[in-house]
Amino acid sequence: MLLLLLVAAQPVAAQPKDCLPLTPTGTQGGALLPRGLMNVRFGGTTGAPLALDVYPHTDAAIRPLAVVLRGGTGTVGQRSSYVGQLVEMLGDAGYVVATADYRSQSVDVAVEDLTAALRLLTMCHAATLHVDQYKTVLVAEDGAAPAALQLAARLQELRLGRFAGAPATPAAVVVIGGRFTSAPVPAVPTRVVHGLADSDVPIVEARTLCERAKASCEVVDVAGASHRVENWWPSQWGYKRELLQWLSTRVGSVPAPARGTAATDGLRKRVVYDAANTLSLDLWTPAGAGPHGVVVLVHGGGWEAGDRVTYIAPMLALAAAKGLAWVSIDYRLTPDVTNREQVADVRTALAWLRDHARELRFDPKRMVLVGESASGQLAAHLAASEPGLAGIVSFYGVYDLEANAGDPANPRSLARRLFRLTTLDAAGRETLREYSPLHHAASTAPPMLILAGTADRLVAQQRAYAAALKSAGARVDVLELDGAPHGMEAWNDNPAWRTWEKGVGDWLVARLRVTPNETSDRADARQRSGAAPGPHRGSPLR
User: Fold this and answer.
1) 287-315 burial code (b ≥16 CB/10 A, e <16)
2) How many beta carbons lie within 10 A of that of residue 250, not counting itself?
């Protein structure tokens, strides 16, 4: 009886009077999950707004909220960079998931921004989003860890004052592949998931943090895992299941996900394109009859990591903003297969898209293949055998496998990992050359755009490949970003590097001849008008 009285007496946070509306202004084409409310302003100024993306479910069940925080040094935009797998994992588990901007010049400034985001989600619009304001979890990767820990500690200090405008204390904090400089000791239950092969942040730093914690804190090590969680291999993804089980001890059972079955916002998840190999893709189609030009995205990850929502995420909103459909595919990864099978998987996906173009409202003659890093090699390799493509875009690709072969005696060498070569004899070198785009430049290749940062060690291969293409009479455009490192997600950390978005966007429009009719997306028009999708409407097939 006493317990019931205590529950009934639990205070409800007052709704602030200065709430901003829950108005999405961004394209649905940038969403990682169906029915996302994209680019909702929660703070900042009119000239420099801070925004978030939030993914509610379609039923009225009250759910925990997971706020996922990307690392890096960028201030705003590309909130899904680095964290796509985390967003998808938590959304599929039934959480309402949000990703938010925050200014990164100091931990205190980041905490100020994230507090404003939590106010919008858990105090201003908790009823609309069906969020339990007392069951919020913060999930941070890389440099976002100190801000998440500090935010939890600060809100705990203010727990008696939350009725005056502060959100409730988070139920838990999760740090995955974190950095701990300037991080306060954990003040709420915390789980730190860290790679044992992290050469950026030794796991001893994570253990030291937990040893000083004021609340329960545990470190879970992942054998062989490097620093950034998006680089972890499928064999290391067991942490996901264990993490969800741990979270359930903090927030209780989570209602089953409910996102509907109709593709009302154009996004379809995990559409199977190769049942024999259990391969699927995500796709987004603009409103309108079409047929639409389409951008086919293939993620990188060293041929051994990543999936549909990893690495390539910045391209989703860019393609959609240009009125283009997009498709992001999974393919089999090493060591389960070799590079030969990976090339075959991309070819199978292209064939499937052509076969289903009519029902998807795609134009099979206006299809551009986009790869990045490892998949830059896959995309460029197909240039010799896929002349029907309208174009190929390769970000910082690997074009000369022979030059990068390494010593086959080393299991981690490229020669061993990609082709299971144990010696670099004549046959082995011929295999490497066969799959090296540098050695197959031809005038019959589709028009190509290749781009890399000048601080990327692969820029030398880009220059050699561009020269070979030009010498062969192929149509090629080259873009270099001065001082930029490897990875389009990192490019968002510097406004000067974000010129790639205009360069790639303009090139895609020119190649795919986007018409004014295709750029009028009725779903996006609803968002711009401020009509947020209701929580009970249908949503596309997952």
Assistant:
1) bbebbbbbbbbbbbbbbbbbbbbbbbbbb
2) 18
Give the per-residue pLDDT at 535. 32
Do 294 and 363 contact (CB within 8 A), yes or no?
yes
Of 366, 328, 363, nearest to 346 (Cα)? 328
End-to-end CA distance of the chain: 43
- The torsion angles phi and psi of 368, rounded to 5 degrees, stand at -110, 130
Question: Could you identify the residue written with the tokens 């991080």?
Answer: 183
Spatial separation of the C-alpha atoms in residues 444 and 435, rounded to whole Å: 17
Report how far apart, in Å, the C-alpha atoms of 185 and of each of 38, 150, 206, 207, 208 are.
33, 8, 11, 11, 10
- Evaluate the CA torsion angle 269, 272, 278, 280 in order and state its sign: negative
**Rounded Cα distance, 94 and 412, in Å:** 38
User: Which neighbouring-strand residues pair with 70?
Assistant: none
Tens-place pLDDT, residues 389-445: 999 999 999 999 999 999 999 999 999 999 999 999 999 999 999 999 999 999 999
- Using CA atoms, how far residue 272 sits from 91, 319, 341, 369, in Å, is 20, 22, 17, 19
> Which helix H or strand E contains 327, and what residues bound it?
strand 325-329
Phi/psi region, residue 450 (left: phi>0; alpha: psi -120 to 50; beta: rest), is: beta
* pLDDT for the residue numbered 18: 83
* DSSP state for residue 473 in the 8-state scheme: T
Cα–Cα distance for residue pair 454/396, rounded to 1 Å: 10
What was the pLDDT predicted at 529? 34
Mean pLDDT of 268-285: 97
Q: Judging by DSSP bridges, how do beta strands 292-298 and 279-284 pair with one another? A: unpaired
Give per-residue pLDDT as tens, 48-89.
899 999 999 999 999 999 999 999 876 666 798 999 999 999
Instruction: Read off the tokens for 76.
Output: 């705003």
- Percent of the chain at pLDDT > 70 equals 89
Give every strand in the sheet of 190-195, ordered side by side: 37-44, 49-55, 96-100, 63-69, 131-142, 172-178, 190-195, 217-222
Residue 261's pLDDT band (cuts 50, 70, 90): low
Within 234-305, strands assigned E span 267-274, 279-284, 292-298
